[in-house]
């Protein structure tokens, strides 16, 4: 019988992955198995396999990921991270791994008062700390957002009346909406954003390995298969 631990798996170097793991369906903890699961978890595992790396995921605050990359505490940021010019000054990104975008959400009982995102002007908005959602929330409300360590806490605060709207990533909002009837998503998507995996600036070795694995997994249909598994399309 073949050994579970092949020589190559034992010899493979490990990529330390930093992730904020309360971001379903991209990276979150399965309640039953207590394992990290999700679209990006499957994707980085497939990439690691293809590129000859073991993958070790460490959970951390979203706003801690770029600093951890810069100091070399982790090798890759896998966290629904939007590729922005600001962030590109600090880290390097792979080719896009997902097309995301922001939406605003309000309490279901307030839906009539928020026909468009413009109605959020002057209102108190909640967001996840350090995200593009925080920046957009502040832009459209004209006020400082109240920030939380994860999207679920921001949604909870909205539900409890601590703010009037949340701005966050559409697929994550919709994951929460499936489980709760307290919220209403505003019709107009606010942005479209490319997400990428991030590495320390100048880490060509890991960046090239990730990119060539991603490109071949796109070509051979693995990425589409993982997408189908989590989004059913
Ligand atoms: N896409 C947004 C951003 O890059 C939010 C990402 C939050 N990710 C997470 N795993 N909590 O700012």
Give an overview in words.
By secondary structure, this protein is α/β, with parallel strands linked by helices. 37% of the residues lie in helices and 23% in strands. The chain has a 5-stranded mixed sheet, with helices on both faces. The protein has a 5-stranded mixed sheet with strand order 11-10-12-9-13. Strand 10, helix 5 and strand 11 form a beta-alpha-beta unit. Helix 2 (39-51) packs antiparallel against helix 9 (222-231). The longest helix has 16 residues, at 204-219. It is globular and about 60 Å long. The model has no long low-confidence stretch (mean pLDDT 95). Residues 20, 23, 27, 62, 79-82, 100, 128, 131-133, 169 line the site of arginine.
Outline the fold blueprint.
Elements: H1 7-11, E1 14-19, E2 22-23, E3 27-29, E4 36-37, H2 39-51, E5 54-59, H3 62-71, E6 76-77, H4 85-88, E7 91-93, E8 98-100, E9 102-107, E10 125-128, H5 132-141, E11 146-148, H6 151-159, E12 165-169, H7 170-179, E13 183-185, E14 193-195, E15 198-200, H8 204-219, H9 222-231
Parallel strand pairs: 1-5, 1-6, 10-11, 10-12
Antiparallel strand pairs: 2-3, 3-4, 6-15, 7-15, 8-14, 9-12, 9-13
Helix pairs in contact: 2-8, 2-9
Bound molecules: arginine.
């Amino acid at each position: 019988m073949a050994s579970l631990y092949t020589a190559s798996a034992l010899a493979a170097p490990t990529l330390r992955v930093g992730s904020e793991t309360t971001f379903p369906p991209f990276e979150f903890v399965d309640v039953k198995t207590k394992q990290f699961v999700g679209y990006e978890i499957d994707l980085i595992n497939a990439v690691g396999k293809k590129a000859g790396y073991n993958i070790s995921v460490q959970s951390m605050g979203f706003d801690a990921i770029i600093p951890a990359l810069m100091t070399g505490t982790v090798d890759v940021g896998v966290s629904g991270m939007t590729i922005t010019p600001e962030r590109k000054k600090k880290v390097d990104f792979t080719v896009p791994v997902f097309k995301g975008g922001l939406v605003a959400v309000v309490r279901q009982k307030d839906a009539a008062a928020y026909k468009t995102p413009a109605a959020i002007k002057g209102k108190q908005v909640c967001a996840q700390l350090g995200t593009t959602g925080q920046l957009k929330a502040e832009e459209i409300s004209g006020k400082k957002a109240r920030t939380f360590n994860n999207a679920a806490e921001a949604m909870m605060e909205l539900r409890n009346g601590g703010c009037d709207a949340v701005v966050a990533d559409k697929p994550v909002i919709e994951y929460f909406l499936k489980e709760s009837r307290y919220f209403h998503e505003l019709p107009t998507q606010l942005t479209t954003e490319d997400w990428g995996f991030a590495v320390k600036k100048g880490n060509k070795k890991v960046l090239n390995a990730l990119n060539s694995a991603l490109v071949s997994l796109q070509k051979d249909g693995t990425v589409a298969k993982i997408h189908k598994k989590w989004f059913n399309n």
